[in-house]
Write a structure and sequence with these properties.
The protein is mainly alpha-helical. 44% of the residues lie in helices and 11% in strands. The protein contains 4 helices and 3 strands, in the order ααβαβαβ. It has a 3-stranded parallel beta sheet with strand order 1-3-2, sandwiched between helices. Strand 2, helix 4 and strand 3 form a beta-alpha-beta unit. The longest helix is centred in the N-terminal third of the chain and has 20 residues.
Length: 114
């Protein structure tokens, strides 16, 4: 496994993403036996790369179709109303989805943050 020479985030870190998905699959199966839900968590350095990883997962790994929650945060890791183009209602839905992501009622299997 190595970091590739590329300006595109998903090309540069494709080996790491693949390893993360492989380990998540193992953990998901083991956690499921215990009645728990494993979630793949990926944090990137900026929103462009966050969106790139989201698209990559959705097009590369079918189990993530309709199961990815992407949240753009500020430098403190918080969802900021002031910096967001989303409405207060949309931001509240994102917070609730993030807080309940590991419940079986949640449709999400993966969470991306920046």
């Amino acid at each position: 496994m190595h970091e590739r020479q590329s300006s595109k985030f998903t090309e540069k870190y494709s080996d790491y993403i693949a390893l993360g998905v492989e380990e998540w699959r193992k953990a998901y199966t083991e956690h499921e036996k215990l009645g728990k839900k494993a979630v793949l968590f990926i944090m990137t350095d900026d929103t462009k790369n966050c969106d790139d990883v989201e698209t990559y997962l959705l097009t590369t790994y079918p189990e993530f179709n309709n199961a990815v929650l992407t949240i753009h945060t500020n430098n403190n890791g918080e969802i900021s109303e002031a910096d967001s183009k989303k409405s207060v209602e949309e931001l509240e839905k994102l917070r609730k989805a993030a807080n309940s992501i590991d419940s079986w009622e949640s449709p999400y299997k993966s969470l991306f943050l920046f």
